[in-house]
Specification:
Keywords: DNA-binding, Transcription, Transcription regulation. With 146 residues, the protein is mainly alpha-helical. Helix content is 52%, strand content 10%.
Length: 146
């Protein structure tokens, strides 16, 4: 079993009498948390966003994602493939050619990510103002955080 994944997929971490389906268990062993940790990291979000329009080769993804190392992109793609979000297709040609594309499950996740991006774009001015206010206050108090 891979690190960071539940031994029993599909099981809920907490189904007691106070269980709320709209909340998830934040413990490390909870499958919902494990999935969120995987799909909500910065590299996964960028890969899913780029693969929305078309399939891409590894080198194309690496070129488009500023700052990602080859190792991290490889790990991210493997994790997304394992979770059923990305399909890896190896073409029997010389030199070898490998394409990555979203699966239907990945496409459905992209719609959610798009909603998050839309929210961010519509609130970026408010966030910038909040950061500015915080930084001014923290600077006065000697606690600047970036």
């Amino acid at each position: 079993m891979e690190d960071g994944t539940s031994e029993f997929p599909g099981t809920r971490c907490d189904t007691g009498p106070d269980y709320d389906a709209f909340q998830w268990d934040t413990r490390e062993g909870c499958e919902v948390r494990q999935i969120l940790d995987r799909v909500a990291d910065k590299w996964s979000l960028l890969v899913i966003a780029l693969l929305d329009k078309r399939s891409l080769r590894f080198t194309e993804l690496k070129r488009e994602i500023d700052g990602v190392s080859q190792r991290m992109l490889t790990r991210t793609l493997r994790h997304l493939e394992r979770d059923g979000l990305v399909r890896r297709t190896v073409h029997p040609v010389v030199p070898p050619r490998v394409d990555y594309e979203l699966t239907p499950l990945g496409v459905s996740l992209h719609a959610t990510i798009k909603a998050l991006v839309d929210w961010t774009e519509s609130h970026q001015r408010e966030i910038a103002e909040a950061r500015h206010t915080y930084d001014r206050r923290a600077e006065r108090e000697g606690e600047l955080v970036h």
